[in-house]
Input
Amino acid sequence: MKLITVFCLGLFSVACVAQADTFTRALTPPFYTDVQRLDDGTPYYFHDDQWAAFVFLRLPSCVPPDFDLLDGADFAPAFPGGAPRVFGCPLTVEGHAILQSPDDFIPVQANLKGLGAVPVWFVKLADIQPVLAGNKLTIAQLLGIPSLRKGFANIYDEIDQPGTFRPQGAGNGSIHVTASGALEDGTSFQLEWLEMGAKNGDGQTFVRHARIAFK
Output
């Protein structure tokens, strides 16, 4: 599960805001997409048995053409000694993390919500698998896939629970993504993804539901 890596790295804002007995902090994830490698090197991306979906958390137009999206975070400086270049690329989502303590690095829950036009690119699973077999994925490679279909999600919601603070332990987190919108040709789409950890908290996670549909 990508949760702890993604949202620990996303806690780059200033002071927390207290709400009752919890704290919230804005998320500014240093990622271009919801793609990365898992600890065992396996590519992590949303897909069902026919299509793969690539959600751009930042505008695709400013993704460096040679950047390996499987690396996840991009900390290359915009200029020598400067801030990471990823932060110069506008976000397509906004989010916040819920913390038990303002000093926590791992959130109880993290939420991302689209800003109204989240780019989502779809390619056939059979087309992306040979590309990923090379252990690299760039935006240039995505653009070269014949089955590529581009769209924008006017509704995008992502709820992530790392599980660290849940009774069952860190291996019982979850990722729940729902998105809907339209492709460039007007075709509507829906994306649903639900990943949950095993109840015994052994760190293994399973995709419980995955659906990509076009109408």
